[in-house]
Amino acid sequence: MGILSLHSMNRAITVSLFALLIALVSSSCEEIGPNIDLGGPGRDATLADTTYVAATVEAPQTKNVLLEDFTGVRCKNCPLGAAQATSLLALYPERLIVIAQHSQFLNQPYAGEPDLRIDESQDIETMLAPVLGKPSGAIDRRIFPGESVILQASVNKWANLTTQALTETTPVNIYIDRNWNSTTRNLTVTVTVHYTGTETGENRLSVFLLEDNIVAAQLQPDDEIDSNYVQRHVLRQMFTRFNGELLVGSKTPGTVFVKGFIIEGIDAAYNANELEIVATVSRSAGSFQVLQAVGEKVVQ
């Protein structure tokens, strides 16, 4: 009886050691795929992701300008930046796109008020640094002649730099198609990028979801808090990573990229009638310059 027990024990140990060896070999031989840029939280393998060369090269779109206003609810001068952005939108309603970036600095929400901060806004601010104060404006994420930084803390410069950017041309056309399900609150977006010129460096596609006209308390220049302040063009979520999705392949006239994204179950607190999709294509190797920006309302 003792001999049989010892034999059984030895057999069990042998089987266990063999199983462990197989596990170690299997784990050490596991195939590791390439580091593929899947584009962030909104990427879905079932959605569009294709590249082709069009039979006809499109005429270039009119160049639109992206103004990103880095702002904060506890920044008493930030309403001045928002007012400047609103004035510029009135001047260029068809050609200017504004995104309010609520990064961390001076942005702790007041008690009972919505928190407008998101990680992507902070990541974008860090990417475009240095930040010399708030409000700071990034116009097409570029350094203009005579300037040394992307983020302009002087609100008075925004108009002149925007005017300069409006004179530029774009090598890329962007189109947005969207499908909004009001029951599930799923938002599917397909972005088509058609190159009309040649880009030799890296380009990235970024897709943003904004909400306009959010009532949230804001510190004012007179140090009073306006509890009925209307926050405009607030970045709520991104379909891509903060720095966009890399457009892999040659980018010559006629090259077309089609990318699909989805955000499922958009927060019920967001007003669908105030939601807007913004898509941009920008450089990412030695420059963050935005080549084109377009916007589309979720509910029309």
Any overview of this molecule?
By secondary structure, the chain is α+β, with helices and mostly antiparallel strands. It has a single domain (about 50-295), classed as Immunoglobulin-like (Sandwich), CATH 2.60.40. The protein has helices spanning about 1-30, 80-90, 120-130, 160-165, and strands at about 50-55, 65-70, 95-100, 135-140, 150, 170-180, 185-195, 205-210, 215, 220, 225, 230, 235-240, 245, 255-265, 275-285, 290-295. The strands form 5 sheets. Strands 8, 13, 14, 16 and 17 form a 5-stranded antiparallel sheet that branches. The N and C termini lie far apart (about 85 Å).
Based on the model shown, name its key terms:
300 residues; alpha+beta; 5-stranded antiparallel beta sheet; 4-stranded antiparallel beta sheet; 32% strand; disordered N terminus
Summarize, please.
20% of the residues lie in helices and 32% in strands.
Structural class: alpha+beta
Gyration radius, rounded: 25 Å
N-to-C SSE string, H for helix and E for strand? HEEHEHEEHEEEEEEEEEEEE
Q: Tell me the number of structural domains.
A: 1
CATH superfamily: Immunoglobulins
Supply the CATH architecture: Sandwich
Reported for the largest beta sheet, the result is: 5 strands, antiparallel
Q: Count every helix, treating DSSP H or I runs of 4 or more residues as helices.
A: 4
- Strand elements, count: 17
State the CATH class: Mainly Beta
Unreliably modeled segments:
1-38
* Global outline: globular
Do you know the CATH topology? Answer: Immunoglobulin-like
Please state roughly what percent of the residues sit in beta strands, choosing from under 5%, 5-15%, 15-25%, 25-35%, 35-45% or over 45%. Answer: 25-35%
Estimate the helix proportion, in percent.
10-25%
CA distance, first residue to last residue: 84 Å
Mean pLDDT, nearest integer?
A: 89
